[in-house]
Amino acid sequence: MFTRIRRRALTLAFATGLLTAQVVTMGASPAAAAPQDCERGANGFVDIPDTLRGAQAPVAPVSIFGRTATLYVGSVRGVTRGWAHLGGDTLWGDSVWMDWTQNGGRTWLQCGPFEVSSGGQTKTSAAQRASSDANWQFRACLRWGRHDPPHVRCTAWW
């Protein structure tokens, strides 16, 4: 009897562990993407100058050690679009990207990273059209240098 109870308890614990592992690994994650997946018109993105700024989207910028990622929105080629911008005390190796979701953040495409090649340089992601669809959202992310583990911060979704 004791062995049967212990066996059931171990089986339950093992099953719970597997379920927990599945939930963690099946959580929201980005699609595998590289800068070329959102440059030169890929996936509806358009290239913009690294100095372009628009109106700050209604989410707070994020900062790490003097570098700041801001999500901007503005007119690009006559269309309202969103993009990520990295500025501040940047150094070689800092990078910025924009995550774009069409399902409220359950999955997303990571547009970038776009890396700074010299200190003090600003950098932007490519720009994607905005939408009134509540599931169509963006966030700006930055990575400080090439550290391991990485120092990464992202804005809230907008």
Instruction: Give the number of helices.
Output: 1
Radius of gyration: 20 Å
So what's the overall shape? globular
CATH fold assignment: Immunoglobulin-like
Q: Order of SSEs, N→C?
A: HEEEEEEEEEEE
CATH class bucket: Mainly Beta
Instruction: Name the CATH architecture.
Output: Sandwich
Mean pLDDT across residues:
82
Q: What is the helix content? A: 10-25%
Kindly report how far apart the N and C termini lie: 57 Å
How large is the share of residues in beta strands?
A: 35-45%
Describe this structure in words.
This protein has one helix spanning 2-25; strands spanning 29-31, 55-56, 62-64, 67-76, 79-88, 95-101, 107-115, 123-124, 128-129, 137-144, 151-154. It has 158 residues and is α+β, with helices and mostly antiparallel strands. The protein has one domain (28-154): Immunoglobulin-like. Strands 2, 3, 4, 5, 8 and 9 form a six-stranded antiparallel β-sheet that branches. A five-stranded mixed β-sheet has the order 1-7-6-10-11, with no helix packed on it. β4 (67-76) and β5 (79-88) form a beta hairpin. It is globular, with a radius of gyration of 20 Å. 29% of the residues are buried. The model is unreliable at 1-28 (pLDDT under 50).
Summarize the structure.
The chain has one helix at 2-25; strands spanning 29-31, 55-56, 62-64, 67-76, 79-88, 95-101, 107-115, 123-124, 128-129, 137-144, 151-154. It is α+β, with helices and mostly antiparallel strands and 158 residues long.
Draw up the topology in text:
Layout: H1 2-25, E1 29-31, E2 55-56, E3 62-64, E4 67-76, E5 79-88, E6 95-101, E7 107-115, E8 123-124, E9 128-129, E10 137-144, E11 151-154
Parallel strand pairs: 1-7
Antiparallel strand pairs: 2-4, 3-4, 4-5, 5-8, 5-9, 6-7, 6-10, 10-11
